[in-house]
Amino acid sequence: MSNNTETLIRMANQIGDFFNAYPEAEAVPQIATHIRKFWDPRMRKAILAHIADHQGEGLKPHVLQALKSLPN
């Protein structure tokens, strides 16, 4: 796993941590919306490639669920 991928995993999990107080049904779409709005398309592409290649290793379950809901 590259340093860049590790950084993206950490960042995505931090976003997920922010939404921990929300019910999961609300948190997952909020995480996805945040990443869609504020991450550069190259960042989104890299994290989605990590999910495809490594099944999202290192991502928290609700973060992984949110990322899987993003369009490719």
UniProtKB/TrEMBL annotation:
The protein, known as: Formate dehydrogenase subunit delta
Taxonomic superkingdom: Bacteria
Pfam family, one: FdsD
Organism name: Dongia soli
InterPro entries membership: Formate_DH_dsu
